[in-house]
Input
Amino acid sequence: MATNVNPTPEALVADLVLLLDLEPRGGDGRFLGRRKKGGVGRVFGGQAIAQALGAAERTVDDNRHCHSLHCYFLRGGNEEYPIDYQVMRDFDGGSFSNRRVVASQQGQPILNLTASFQISQKGLEHQYQQMPDVPAPEDLKSDVELRREMAELVPNMYRDRLLQPWPIDTRPVEPRDWMFPQKNEPLSHVWFRTVAELPDDPRVHRAVLAYASDMHLLATSTRPHGVNWYRGEVKAASLDHAIWFHEPFRADEWLLHVTDSPWAGGSRGFTRGQIFSRDGRLVASTAQEGMIRPVANDPKG
Output
């Protein structure tokens, strides 16, 4: 994300933390989200989710943590501009608070988010879903290595973006061949963490998880169809996104995102996910529906 050719892991993560931070724009719930350094394309959905969450969090008491968020993507954002966030304080009760956030660029809304917050409370506890038995991240190739191996096969227009260094280290258990994909089960397991240590603030770790949660969900719904993104066979865009935060975690320690897609149809794919800490705790759940429209069926051609 930094503009130098070979940024250090620490610089990459520092840029990410700064990107997900917000500048207050008065006391009426207005905030400004920074633009990505060197950004020249479409805003990554995870960035808008994480920044909107951060805006909402800044309007609730510190003892209330976000336990769920739901958002809709309305328009594609442009990396050439910062994003304006307006927070509406809808509810503050004895235990819960609710906030609505509208993210806009140049006067046009691009994302709506609703988030719920709760004070820490003891209650009934169980975890039915167990963490699957998969290879350790140290035994897997990182996405950086996999992208470098296929870079020469990718059209020039995508190559620079493909090789761009990322602050998130992702290691797929089932690496996908993006150029010559085969039809596979709609199931994916991906380890992820930041490439360097994060501050101890739990809000930073929630923001980074929200950012990373948008990296692999929609792709899972295309796995049974063997479509090629880089040959322009399918047009994709996130439509909505949800996260439930269950337990404390650190996003600079390995987390396993298990995603499956129970359904696709009508040019849409639905995917759900569970995020486990390395010690097997279910720390978050995710869900997303997105457009996965074959280009041949695109009404715009």
User: Anything to note?
Assistant: The first helix runs from residue 9 to 20. The mean pLDDT is 92.
